[in-house]
Automatic annotation (TrEMBL), chains A, B:
Keywords: Oxidoreductase
UniProt cross-references to PROSITE patterns, sorted A to Z: ADH_IRON_2
Keyword Chloroplast: no
Domain Alcohol dehydrogenase iron-type/glycerol dehydrogenase GldA stretches: 9-177
Molecular function (Gene Ontology), one example: butanol dehydrogenase (NAD+) activity
Residue ranges of domain Fe-containing alcohol dehydrogenase-like C-terminal in the record: 192-389
Organism, as annotated: Tepidimicrobium xylanilyticum
Record's keyword annotation contains Oxidoreductase: yes
Record protein name field: Uncharacterized protein
Taxonomic superkingdom: Bacteria
Amino acid sequence: MLNFSYHSPTKILFGKDMEFEVGKEVANYGKKILLHYGGGSIKRIGLYDRVIDSLKKEGIEYIELPGVQPNPRLKLVRKGIEICKEEDIDLILAVGGGSVVDSAKAIGIGAKYDGDVWELFEKKAVPKDTIPVGVILTLPATGSETSNSTVVTNEETKVKVSVRSEIVRPAFAILNPETTYSLPKEQTSAGVSDIMAHIFERYFTNTRNVDLTDRLCEGTLRTLIKYAPIVLKEPNNYAARAEIMWTGTIAHNGILGLGREEDWASHKIGHEISAMYDTTHGVTLSIIFPAWMKYVYKNNVERFAQFAVRVFDVEADFNNPEVVALEGIRRLEEFFRSIGLPTTFKEAGIPTDKIDEMARRCISNSGGDSVGFFVKLYEKDVLEIYKLALE
Amino acid sequence: MLNFSYHSPTKILFGKDMEFEVGKEVANYGKKILLHYGGGSIKRIGLYDRVIDSLKKEGIEYIELPGVQPNPRLKLVRKGIEICKEEDIDLILAVGGGSVVDSAKAIGIGAKYDGDVWELFEKKAVPKDTIPVGVILTLPATGSETSNSTVVTNEETKVKVSVRSEIVRPAFAILNPETTYSLPKEQTSAGVSDIMAHIFERYFTNTRNVDLTDRLCEGTLRTLIKYAPIVLKEPNNYAARAEIMWTGTIAHNGILGLGREEDWASHKIGHEISAMYDTTHGVTLSIIFPAWMKYVYKNNVERFAQFAVRVFDVEADFNNPEVVALEGIRRLEEFFRSIGLPTTFKEAGIPTDKIDEMARRCISNSGGDSVGFFVKLYEKDVLEIYKLALE
């Protein structure tokens, strides 16, 4: 186990009707907020009205900034920063999925930064402060409601990159599983893939002696595998929606990666697909992860065999660990397909003629000459992984 | 899953040499601290000197209050409160095991309370504020380094009771597994029993649909069962000590009980043994838990069968769930004995002639007419559990 420092100060309010608490939570931070959301879905499910009621009850003034799109855009972030500076905003309230939360986080650090916010994403400076961000989550997926990162797309240059900083962990997060009942199947499935990917990026490590954390990862993965098919069949099943929603937070609040080297290559390889074709984040991950696994498993067959046995109940054949490892990867692909997710470019209908450019951009956007730690992947390796994912 | 609110703001610094960071952490809170510890053990292992060096480097002034005993005493708490008030202390630094941490927490809330601190333990008032508490942990057991509770014994009345409040979560906790190398075997084992008990109090619930959290509990228990024998055989095994130490925090930072009704009867039943005979807390739990399980398992055989199968690898015989459940309890007793812990009064050499009085006091100290939630236990039930634990 490696040394670590961990601080996850986000207050969580989880359960039915918890959105009615938002006014009181906000009041701890001030009287004037930026209300940030996407399109009509929070209005359609009545969440918008409940939030407004709760804010009004506490006398909170709110300025609205809707319009966040999936793969949130720099332009809207800049607009939010402008409003925050002009209006002296006390807190940014993100109501929606991970894109809204990431956009809010970017606005928060941008409003407290002297230069242009994109410099923080280009790693030309590190964020030192933020306007507090509160969250009402409606889509379990990115884990952004408690995480220490935000991902934004520069729509002009088609660059999708992240800022990682303890500064960006939200002040509070409200999670009501009922708000996820009306999610389309594709979003539910893509969310599950995203959550699994957050665990994989931590689980597949060469750091030894991380047994407790391995078990926490495995239990979280098993929960997803059990409940994803249930929520797809019974979208209004509270118990199952609650398991998926809480799993999304546990997967990415940091606790599953403590004391180990994490990887994050697959996220970066997937980001290039989103940047190029605006593909849903979770879909890029169900495509890239099996390919990544096939490319790297030989580097640590034991870990992939453990994954197969403990997560997918593959029989533990110690004479043939490689067979066990490959069966685990096969079952993961099967699982993704069973919940309606593509595992190749072809299945997703994504063009395949720009993979050279994507591999090149993946490395150049990383700021170094490689991505990942489980195995360091150079441009040629990233290209091979795209090729393995073609069909 | 029940609704919940969760906030665990303690900053964790985990790993080798992390105690050298203490001066910097303390400096975030002020310049004058109460340095609270037990006896000579922290000096014997050189920890005391390292802490003092780090404090001096940051120009921190410290007033020492040593002398904390296991089952920390009210008298010393009152003395600490006096010092804090007179000296205008900014932070209380607890260096030691759970007793030192609990004593520091009690001092922290007592110093900010107008009346006598014991009123907070008698539930005559609730704590509203505390002097911040920092921790350097040397004994993985009570989980007090991040928990929301403190337990103190009134040595005059022999009453051992707790305060639960979000206020008492420490500001930071430093955990270096190396500081646990020199622990006597009995303390290591009693610590493991205490950690397991914190999970049991949460795991054995009648709340349904708590699957993710069940799995996190089970993984944590399996880790303890695997590594406890290793640290007893190889006390300087860093990897194994690290697993046990981190397990102690995970077991009691609250995350394993979210969304479910917790029990806590066994702790209260065990507290009466400590209050009467000053028995080590973990030892009271290895005695009481198997007896409690035998007394209550019929109330929810399925849960005890799940425990047996998932934690102790008992074969899943669905035609005979009761047999499965009982085999799980038997294996737990066997495990406790294998790490040198008593599972009865007799094995522990504890007198058995005061169990009537202990049962009476257990209920009267609870402030109601029963303890526990998995099954509500009245005085006659508590007495029966003591009887099941006699030999």
